[in-house]
Write a structure and sequence with these properties.
9 strands; 35% helix; alpha/beta; binds adenosine-5'-triphosphate; five-stranded parallel β-sheet; globular; 215 residues; four-stranded antiparallel β-sheet; Rossmann fold
């Protein structure tokens, strides 16, 4: 469970302070898919980055299970994120000069010097599940957008995170690829009992979302 209480985030733009997230309260439960909607600039990405501990809130607190994340040191937050949260980005965020396999394992191999073989084996399984086994030694420029996004998802779920956060995961994709990715994310949430939080301005996630949060 991840819970936010009185969450707020402000930015200064052109010398004016704007409240992007203002006294936001919510509880996210396992096995539920939360769809964040809102016009451009309403704060969808900002909210996701707060929930992923990628930036610090200005007010309120974030509670993950019984841990008050807001009270943790930066390093503790990073460790918690690495263990519990997977993040999928709109523009895939892959390393151009790494193969599919290396893109999926890079962070974990660098951070975990001991169980490298285990990490590679797990990555191979996940890459297979996502239908990319033939692409394992290919580079991002050799892949379609849908395939690149599946690599992004494989990387995000490598550690079987309890929370999957997706920022516009299908908005760069054609319909077939988008539907494919939506089905996978839906299954990750509902078959594996995970918290999934998706920001999306299109309607692909409307049918599988349990809750819609309008910003
Ligand atoms: N680091 C920052 N510094 C200043 N302003 C910022 C910063 N990050 C976001 N903002 C502003 O906060 C507001 C919300 O931005 P955010 O990216 O969260 O919106 P969004 O709903 O995800 O938009 P979009 O759908 O266009 O991606 C915008 O006005 C944006 O310019």
């Amino acid at each position: 469970m991840i819970k936010v209480e009185h969450l707020s985030k402000q930015f200064v733009k052109k010398k004016r302070r704007i409240n992007v997230i203002n006294d936001f309260n919510y509880e996210f439960q396992s096995g539920k898919l939360y769809l964040i909607k809102g016009e451009s600039g309403k704060g969808k990405t900002t909210l996701l980055t707060l929930l992923a501990f990628l930036q610090k809130e200005d007010g309120g607190k974030i509670i993950f299970n019984d841990i008050i994340v807001s009270n943790l040191k930066q390093e503790e937050k990073c460790n918690l994120r690495r263990k519990e949260i997977g993040i999928v980005f709109q523009d895939y965020n892959l390393f151009d000069n790494l193969t599919v396999m290396d893109n999926v394992v890079i962070v974990d191999v660098l951070k975990n010097k001991i169980n490298k073989e285990e990490i590679y084996n797990k990555a191979k399984d996940i890459i297979g599940i996502l239908g990319l086994e033939d692409r394992i030694n290919h580079y991002p420029y050799e892949l379609s957008g849908g395939e690149q996004q599946r690599v992004g998802i494989a990387r995000a779920i490598l550690k079987n995170p309890s929370i999957l956060i997706c920022d516009e995961p299908v908005s760069n994709l054609d319909k077939d690829n988008a539907v494919n990715i939506v089905e996978f994310i839906d299954g990750y949430c509902h078959n594996k009992n995970k918290i999934v939080i998706v920001a999306s301005h299109d309607d692909y996630f409307d049918d599988c979302a349990d809750y819609v949060i309008n910003l």
